[in-house]
Amino acid sequence: MAIYFDRTTKTFYLEGKDITYAFFINKYGFAEHLYFGKRISRDTLLHLRATGGEVASATVPGNVYNAPFCSYQQFPAELSFFGTGYFNEPTVHLLNAEGDRLTELLYDGYEILDEKPQMKTMPSMRGGKTLKLKLRDYATDFCAELYYTVYDDVSVIARRVVYRNERSEAVKLERAYSFTLSLPDMKRDVISFYGAWASERQIQRTPMHHGVISVDSKVSRSTHLNPSMVIATSNANEEHGEAIGIALMYSSHFVLKAEGLPNGAAQITGGINDFDFEWTLEEGEELETPEVIIAYSDEGIGGMSRELHDAAREYIIDKKFVKKSRPIVINNWEGTYFDFNAEKLKAIADGVRGTGVDTFVLDDGWFGKRNNDRCALGDWWVNEEKLPGGLDAIISHVNSLGMKFGLWFEPEMISEDSDIYRAHPEYAIKAPLRKNCYSRQQFVMDITRADVRDYIVDSVNSILDSHNIEYVKWDYNRHATELYSALLPKDRQSEFAHRYALALYELCERIIKTHPQVFFEGCAGGGGRFDYGMLYYFPQIWTSDDSDAHERTHIQYGTSIIYPMSAMSCHVSAVPNHQTGRSTDMKTRADIAHLGATGYELDTSSFTDDDRNVTRGQVEEYRKHEELILSGDLYRLENPFESNFFAFMAVSKDKGNAILTAYRALGGVNREIYRIKPRGLDKSKKYFVPELNLILGGDTLMNAGLIPPFEDGDFKTVTYHFEEK
Ligand code: DGJ
């Protein structure tokens, strides 16, 4: 990787594994984008300025370069702003002391940093060589510092902006996005994600058009859709064409916008959602914006995903856990819901003894008077009526089976019917004159308050510190609605959603980082907060409350566009499935759940020796290929949104071994023969395929393909292994 500044042309070249990003400072001091794509030579790129850059359609009032006949609109921006001759979606929009909302951000120097500065208030990618580009509005001394980070082993550029007020008068930010990405054309599609509870990250592909395509969240979590987007050339598929993946490392209100411009070019921008957002910067104050990870590949959407997955595993997710063998849990939630006692829990743990399932996770319902979802959140003390002898009694039983113990919390929530709410009603988010919305019969705590954060940290940490707890599931089961904090001044209430995110990250620092030995899994009413901000703290996140194998082929496919398989927590659950009522084979459920961080979630207390043998076989099988899930390259062979089939293939980095799982949704009679072509193997290597008892060439496998022998019936899977010979 390298960052290079050509003083003659004032061009910056940023080079990652196989990418070049280039922009230059034009004669007006405007940071003008030149190129982002496949790695190229450090040639001049100034001939790419289609209009010559100076065909004016409007007049810029004087600027430091005193160029009266220029409109910045002509230039592809590194940071778009509002007014002063720029008309596209602004990345920053503010209210100056004079009452105008104008900015004109021009070049004010740069630094090249060998060590990437970590953000002070939010998680960001680690490592990487970094360019810090300083822009200044010379009329108001409002500054934007643009950070660009590149890596020599991933085709990813990380970007963010720090906005600073260097003037004595306050400035009010009304929009403070993280980046502008200028693209030369709009002959591209926007792939975005929509979804809801139990139906996360469904895929939507829309051609770019003149105007704006936007996705956002307004509910203080990144939600069941996703703070990410892919911009793919119109012809791009899994293997071919250019794809740019954009993922915000942010867990609250976000927005991403893809804009087709009048001249046929395009501009992408986004970050903290400016809906219901304002942020006041007093003299000398600054605001950090969330980092955005931008991945590029000319090997299709699949190639782009592999770059993002590598970037996440190398530079975002905790190194301690990311590639290490994961806990395989038995979680009691769907087995019992709130209806359990110590004997029942012990029987569930006993049910999987000797199977290799190595962690028992006690889900919701162990604390306060929590016998249903209408009470006790925030009362983080054990319910001794249900669990005589407290947590230690159940922990020692679980440990005696050779298993670890995990515990569920929902740290940010409070029930109206709880001791803590009766003592501190002010801990809940509440707006004056409004009644609270009772989503899932609970309120969100106002964690923007320091006293609330202290309460949460003290109560969770005291449980973690006094018991042998090796795993925590951190849940968050509703949207925040009546956004308001009694401790924020009236004119700062629009800071709430971002302050919520900052407070959440502080909680993670004070609970997760102080318990480095504990494995934390994220969750939010299923996968309602599945983003790289959270993955910085949680090596894996519960992907969805919908654990039906058929639904999961869609949810896991959509999630994998941006996130690695190892980040997706996936459980084998009971049939008929509690969400869909569908019944699928145990084998199918396991084969699909084994394409992520696997586990079990059903009442195993009645497991027979046969059930245990089946489970043992599945766990052994999973452990054999787990490394491929944790570190391998993912090839999506079949898209369930477009066909009756789904297939994932994970290939080791050295292409020495691989696993392919294919799924057919509906069976039928006299259907077309289904042939699948593995990808990602080495065409010159020979592979033993145990399921065929054959040694075949990588070239044969990838070109001639395979015909999976699906059993008769619906919802069937076939798995192949490939071992280099
Ligand atoms: C929602 C989660 O997604 C479930 O797995 C479970 O933990 C429940 N919350 C418990 O309330």
Commentary on this structure:
With 725 residues, the chain is of the alpha+beta class. The chain is 19% helix and 30% strand. The protein is built from 13 helices and 36 strands. Strands 6, 7, 8, 9, 11, 12, 14, 15, 19 and 20 form a ten-stranded antiparallel β-sheet that branches. Strands 21-22-23-26-27-28-29-30 form an eight-stranded parallel beta barrel, surrounded by five helices. Helix 4 runs parallel beside helix 5 (390-400) and helix 7 packs parallel to helix 8 (496-511). The longest helix is centred in the last third of the chain and has 23 residues, at 609-631. 55% of the residues are buried. The model is unreliable at 52-69 (pLDDT under 50). The structure holds (2R,3S,4R,5S)-2-(hydroxymethyl)piperidine-3,4,5-triol. (2R,3S,4R,5S)-2-(hydroxymethyl)piperidine-3,4,5-triol binds at residues 333, 363-364, 408, 475, 477, 523, 525-526, 542, 545.
Morphology call: globular
Using only C-alpha atoms, the radius of gyration works out to 27 Å
**What do the pLDDT scores average to?**
95
User: In this structure, how is the largest beta sheet organized?
Assistant: 10 strands, antiparallel
Q: Between the first and last Cα atoms, what is the distance in angstroms? A: 35 Å
Small ligands present: (2R,3S,4R,5S)-2-(hydroxymethyl)piperidine-3,4,5-triol
Structure annotation, total helices: 13
- The secondary-structure class comes to alpha+beta
Percentage of residues assigned to helices: 10-25%
- Write down how many β-strands occur, each being a DSSP E stretch of 2 or more residues: 36
Strand content: 25-35%
Q: Note poorly predicted spans.
A: 52-69
